[in-house]
Design brief:
There is one protein chain. Strands 4-5-6-10-9-8-7 form a 7-stranded antiparallel sheet. A 4-stranded antiparallel sheet has the order 1-2-3-11. Strand 1 (28-30) and strand 2 (35-38) form a beta hairpin. The protein is built from 4 helices and 11 strands, in the order H-E-E-E-E-H-E-E-H-E-E-E-E-H-E. It has one domain (22-184): Mog1/PsbP, alpha/beta/alpha sandwich (Protein Transport Mog1p, Chain A), CATH 3.40.1000. It is α+β, with helices and mostly antiparallel strands and 188 residues long.
């Protein structure tokens, strides 16, 4: 009887543990200097202010972890998710190896997400510190979003920032500064 109980406990423990999510593109965030690095994709971003980023999907919880799993099933990866220290602003980065231009990728995402958007400010071409990108501004509920789409080699990337509209107006220059910090780094 005792063996059966121990076996049931062991099975229950195994079922309760979620399988780890393997990263396609392992990365890191150095909170001390605000630098996000992704060596496999060969880029970095510098975050102004106090941001906390989670780069390991095994450290993500709840709906964010499920979102990471859903992206993985579509051969994409949630590179990071984070927020400012006071929790008023959010950010996330997504990568997928589609080998299409940033405009085409942005239009696909725009079309897929259109039903969830309450107010669409449209897609615009932009160049930040010499890097061509597509910018998408929109509102969902009480939150204002800006996403930046760019291409590195065959990889399509999108970085999104969101907050309440009143905060967005004050911090939009910070988001532009973060995106302008995009640097290409060595893989090793």
């Amino acid at each position: 009887m005792r063996t059966a109980i121990l076996a049931l406990f062991a099975v229950a423990l195994l079922l309760a543990c979620a399988a780890p999510l393997k990263e396609f593109y392992p990365d890191s965030y150095f909170a001390e200097d605000g630098v996000y690095q992704n060596k496999p994709l060969r880029f970095s971003l510098t975050f102004r202010g106090t941001w906390y980023l989670i780069t390991d999907p095994d450290d993500m919880r709840g709906s964010t972890r499920q979102f990471a799993r859903d992206l993985r099933e579509r051969s994409a990866e949630l590179l990071f998710v984070g927020a400012t220290a006071e929790g008023t602003q959010g950010v996330r980065g997504i990568a997928i190896n589609l080998n299409v231009g940033q405009r085409e990728y942005a239009e696909k995402i725009h079309t897929l997400n259109a039903p969830d958007v309450d107010e669409d400010f449209g897609l615009t071409e932009t160049i930040l510190d010499g890097m061509p990108m597509v910018r998408w501004d929109y509102r969902v509920g009480e939150f204002r979003f800006v996403e930046f789409f760019f291409t590195l080699d065959t990889y399509n990337l999108r970085i999104a920032f969101w907050t309440r509209p009143s905060v967005f107006e004050r911090f939009e220059p910070v988001y532009l500064d973060i995106m302008s910090s995009l640097c290409f780094i060595d893989r090793y």
